[in-house]
Amino acid sequence: PAMDYAGLAEAAAEKMGLYRRDPGGWRGCRRTSEVSVSWRPSAEFAGNVYRGEGIVPASPQDVWECIKPVADGRRTKWDQNVKDFEVVEAISDTVSVCRTTTPSAFMRIISPREFVDVVLMRQCEDGTMLSAATNVEHPLCPPQPKFVRGFNFPCGCFCIPLPGEPDRTQLLSFFQTDLGGYLPQTVVDSFFPASIAGFYSNLTKAVKALKA
Prior knowledge:
Pfam families: START (PF01852). By secondary structure, this protein is an alpha+beta fold. The chain contains 4 helices and 12 strands, in the order αβββααβββββββββα.
């Protein structure tokens, strides 16, 4: 049977909304000038869901321009965890199946990964821009020998406008990823908080370059 990509994308967006509204149970694990990172056990798989929250010094449109999951988007240029990003199939104007590859990381302990996700993009009534994603299978994306297949469980970002502050954006992001392969849990637990801090730091540089 064909996968209901639109339905899966919608369910991932629902999950994002639940995470956003549910402040309970998060434990802080890293804080920088740009982001505070917290985590709690995932209900989706045997790992953690991570939450990043920070203020980016740019308008929601500029932040979205840098992070939106589109072909030939800016993300591959600034996000050190995204090597390549391709749209495999456009399901609708707002939903697409995408393949992301990541470079080796963490002093090469983590080898290159590939992820196949259905991604939804939406603008909410309050001006918030949302991207939500979750893992799927697609006939055009069989596992590749050079990559370990990882799995994203419902994850995504909210670009939230700040009333009266047009040049600042609250960026709330959720990451929950099974990296696959045989990685020690200690490696996984130290990789994500560092990686999220790097994401916010590199994004801040990218929006400054966009405005320059």
